[in-house]
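**User:** Here is a favour to ask of a fellow structure person. Please take any protein you like and set down a full record of it. No explanation is needed for now; the record alone will do.

**Assistant:**
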Amino acid sequence: MWYVGGVKTDDESRHPPYIVDIRSQPDALQALLDAGWPQECTRLLESLGSFERIVLTGVGSSLQGMYPAYLRLAAAGLPVWWEDTGELLEHDHGSITPDTLVWVTSQSGESAEVAELLDRLAGRPTVLATTNDLDSTLAQAANAVMPLHCGAEHTVGTKSYLNTLVAVGVAVEAALGAGVPDSILHAPEALDTYLGGWDDQLGSISDSVPDASLVVLGRGPSIASARTAGLIIKEAARRPAEGMSVPQFRHGPLEMADDGLVALLFAGSDRDRALNDVMRHDLVATGAHCVWIDAIGSSPTVIETPALTAPIARQVAEILPIQLLTVVLAERIGAEPGKFQRIAKITRTL
């Protein structure tokens, strides 16, 4: 069954566009993997060490989708920045020098901040674009273009976010001497299997997440999942939710934890799991409802992700139950999930 404005239906012609986008993610990811990475992008990334600095930038989920790659580049000792394009324009433009690689990600390639940044750069320095529209302002201005191959996307970032994680993440791994991880090659099938249990997944998520104030927590690469979750819950379900790192939550916001709080906590990588589990126990001790999001386990306080646990693939898997949660939360207020009323797909105002 599919949810349509509070009504379940088997008629696929009546699917809300947002749900169509969610269900199309396995095909979109397979299209990206089948297309591969253009040679001009590969050549540019092979010369990362020749740049004075590397600035990764975007807005919204496009920016968050680059965060795991930022961590990977920083761990490799490269001089890398990760910055919101709006802030880069107004307050941090000094981080761009003539010898900087500016790596801009934008699904549309037409966001107001991106267009303004390109105008100010005026052809300098080197620009690498990750975008879904090869005719966009971003693609036309870039020295090299990495297509997302995710097809049309109607409202909230779904396919574009997932393909950004993979396109950028795999490109960085290749630049650092690694190949495409096997887990990524198997990801479309794992996502398809997970989404094939649509009704069961929605029911389990609904049972696990009561109505209450929401925070979404992660550590390391899973911070991308937490922050994107906070964004799309607001966008797609019109519910307040805040995504942040586990340490950031401990430094103050933990004070608000009580039986009126639901904390969605990503288990994360093997190196992060033990520390995150400490936060889980601390939250439970306050009376808060802590929901552990993981590829392993089954209980009322666990939401299972697709069975992908390797780097890059883990973040691909983590966002799917959050997308389904937005459907559940929208259904609870009788709204069509992912339908914009106050904004448009492309933001054209600074």
